[in-house]
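FORM 7B - TANDEM STRUCTURE REPORT

SECTION 1: FIRST PROTEIN
SEQUENCE AND TOKENS:
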Amino acid sequence: MSAVLTALTPVVFLIAIAAVLHRTKFLPEATWRGMERSTYYVFFPAFLFQSLAQADFRGFHVWPLAAALLSAIAVMACILALVPRFIRLDGQAYSSAYLGAIRWNSFVAIVLLKQLYGRTGITLAAVAFVAIIPVVNTLSVYVLSRHAGADRSFSLAIKAMARNPLILACLAGALWQLAGLPVPSVIGTTLTLLGRTALVLGLFTVGAALSFSHLRARPALLLLVGTLKLLVMPVLMASFCVLYNVQGPARTVAVVAGAVPTATNAYILTRQLGGDSVLMANLISVMTVAALFTMPLAIWLLG
């Protein structure tokens, strides 16, 4: 437990610093948006490419880990499909709740896993990226298109995946690694510097996205989605790890993937495709703060 708290403390501090800087308007809003965009399209893809291109998967439960991750997501998708039968929600609110429960904050996950396991954590986290990102993006776009009234076809999901910089970086890194190609030292050093920047700026974008201006709206729904994402999802991840015999750091990676709050870019997605963006902002903020308390327990009990 102490190791988890030690690893999580720098994550909390960086998020808090960014939240204070954003709230005090130390930097103009355009700077934060540029920081978010550059992290998503440049720094983080560079980090993922290097992690996969130089990864050594020998001795890791790669396929069982991927199976556990995808199985947990499939069960959560089924649970969320049943929600409208028990709770009356309009399409916009339901789609935002769906994204809140099924998406994951990869920035928080990667920093925490690096703190816990170093290069091993990064390597296994890259496996999680390859398994999770295409699936959750497809589900997110599909649900928004069907329930939020957005004038979009399902083909948008395929197009979004084909342009997703994180997916492209993972695929490029995996192909590079499978080809057995070395990464030139100059390129490797450049990617390392970009990757270090990604870890800091990624958490800064999380802190800057915190907003508690509409917490009184839909408190029951906030509680339901938060419970599904922060408590039920890590239990599902751990359960399937037991089923597929995933052990050691790989199991912790799965639990962390389930225990982290929802992704901050879910707000951008809901705003673009017609979801309830105010509800989404509240979900992101509430879960980010709550996860600081639930993540250590999930990792300690299930990891």
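SECTION 2: SECOND PROTEIN
SEQUENCE AND TOKENS:
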Amino acid sequence: MIEIAGTQYAVDDPVILIGGGIVVLILLLLFLSLRASQRSARMAEPLARQMAHLGQHVQALGQGQEQLRGGLQHVSDTQANAQVQVIQTVESRLSSVQQQMNDRLADNAMKSARALAEMQERMKESLHGSSKQTATSLTQLQERLSAIDKAQDNITKLSGDVLTLQDILSNKQTRGAFGEIQLNDIVSKALPSDSFKLQATLSNGRRADCLIHLPNPPGPIVIDSKFPLEAYEALIGSGNDAELKAAVQMFRSTVRKHINDIAEKYILDGETADGALMFLPSEAVYAELHAKFPELVQESFSKRVWIVSPTTCMATLNTMRAILKDARMREQAGAIRKELGLLHKDVERLGDRVANLDRHFGQAAKDISDIKISADKAGRRAQRLDNFDFEELAPDNQPGVVPLARTEG
């Protein structure tokens, strides 16, 4: 038992334990304050006063149970109030934190929704662009496939045309017709329609593929189409020396026969020119002939048979066109001179008439000038008469005045 201020307390009384704890705490604080006072000289005095003040409080606490109980009750109330304040503060902070978290969650939700909407829009645009590009690519692919189909159709048609051309060239008659058609096309493009005749019959009964009406000299000249295709194919398709030799002999004999036939059939004295043209409708055959058979070319020159290809035939026909134009100009020279003479007379007559008209204009100008002079004179006289003032008549007996006598009638 402990007696404090006349009141006894048990040792295990909570009040005594709390009070003892407080005293021990105060002493501990005092000890710590003393140690702190050693570290800081400036804080020593305030801490000493505080310790003295605390000592006084301890003494006052020890003086009365009621004061201690009241102090403990006050401490308890203070702690309760502090706990309530802490709880309220914590609740307020928790509500504030919760509100902030809710706001942040709402903001994050809005941002997520916005980002999701933007992503959906981008994906939609991307898918739309991809679908558009895909549609464009498919359209272009379809167009290209259509072009490929057309090209395939053209290739198929061309293959058929090539086969048809091979069929045409494999037959001598159709091959001759092919050369004649090509010759007709070239001649009709190069010359006027009245300057040539196709399939013209000569006086010896021979029919030429084309007869060009050139003036004398040289006179009408014949163009005949020849196509030694079989000999040429044998020449380029020979696989050994024996075949090559046979093909060369065949080609030489075929071309020589064509040259002789043209020289005999289409060069007629007094009717045609002293030469003729042999038309080869293939540039390859023409090149092969001039490259490997120059003796045949010389032989054709000696027989006055000029071998031409489509290209050289066009050049030759253009030269003939110039000759025809010059001949027609010479034919029209007399008429032109006559027309020039008449034109000269017309010009002289026109000069005479212009001179006469000039004289008439000169005379008219002179007459107009004279009329203007007369008009000016008449105008001046009229002006003088208009400005003339008549004086008063003097008496009859006034000397110097001649009296007016009435004439007896």
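SECTION 3: OBSERVATIONS ON SECOND PROTEIN
Residues 65-170 form the longest helix (106 residues).
Residues 161-170, 390-394, 404-409 have pLDDT under 50 and may be disordered.

SECTION 4: SIGNATURE
Preparer initials: ____
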